């Protein structure tokens, strides 16, 4: 698979692989993903507003990564969550102040420190995962176990393929291909 941006520099739309028309399944998937992303972004803020007493979303992701991955340096944590090290460092400082993470000297490099999760962090991550699972259980209550299993497997595969495609797209040669600018798309 090679990364193919949406439009060639000439302004003509890219063709699907093999030159065939896009399948109904491809269009249905793309539209469904757009709809899901829109709904997620819209409802995420509403849910975050309800959970103000809780740890915010980005901070929770950092805490969860430390719980899951074990002791890590701030730079490694930033790479894990694909975020800027200075932003991660700022959030980590808050998590340390709040008692969710601890800093320990790195035995391999005395100049660096390792972040470890506290019991408070592990408890918060477990609690949030339990609440999350209850919500999904309720939302999918009318789905058969086989349907849930199939969705989980296909979604996992989709995410893996998305990450691969994202990397290929970032590594591709963009000299001949670029998205249209607003000026180019107006008649």
Automatic annotation (TrEMBL):
SUPFAM superfamilies found in the cross-reference section: Winged helix' DNA-binding domain (SSF46785)
BP terms from Gene Ontology: response to stress
Keyword annotations from UniProtKB, A to Z: DNA-binding, Transcription, Transcription regulation
Highest taxon listed in the record's lineage: Bacteria
Keyword Hydrolase recorded: no
InterPro entries: ArsR-like_HTH, HTH_MarR-typ, MarR/SlyA-like, Tscrpt_reg_MarR-type_CS, WH-like_DNA-bd_sf, WH_DNA-bd_sf
Positions of the UniProt region annotated as Disordered: 1-25
HTH marR-type domain mapped to chain residues: 26-160
Gene3D superfamilies reported in the protein's UniProt record: Winged helix-like DNA-binding domain superfamily/Winged helix DNA-binding domain
Record GO terms (molecular function): DNA binding; DNA-binding transcription factor activity
Cited PROSITE patterns: HTH_MARR_1, HTH_MARR_2
Protein name per the record: MarR family transcriptional regulator
């Amino acid at each position: 698979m090679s990364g193919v941006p949406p439009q060639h520099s000439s302004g003509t739309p890219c063709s699907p692989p093999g030159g065939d028309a896009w399948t109904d399944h491809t269009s249905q998937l793309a539209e469904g993903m757009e709809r899901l992303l829109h709904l997620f972004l819209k409802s995420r803020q509403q849910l975050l507003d309800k959970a103000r007493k809780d740890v915010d979303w980005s901070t929770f992701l950092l805490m969860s990564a430390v719980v899951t991955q074990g002791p890590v340096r701030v730079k490694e944590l930033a790479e894990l969550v694909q975020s800027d090290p200075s932003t991660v460092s700022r959030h980590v400082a808050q998590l340390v102040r709040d008692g969710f993470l601890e800093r320990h000297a790195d035995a391999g490099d005395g100049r660096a420190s390792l972040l470890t999760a506290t019991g408070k962090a592990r408890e918060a991550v477990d609690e949030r995962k339990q609440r999350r699972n209850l919500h999904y259980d309720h939302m999918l209550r009318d789905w058969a176990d086989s349907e849930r299993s199939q969705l989980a497997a296909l979604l996992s595969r989709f995410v893996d393929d998305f990450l691969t495609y994202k990397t290929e797209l970032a590594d591709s040669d963009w000299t001949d291909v670029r998205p249209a600018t607003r000026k180019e798309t107006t008649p």
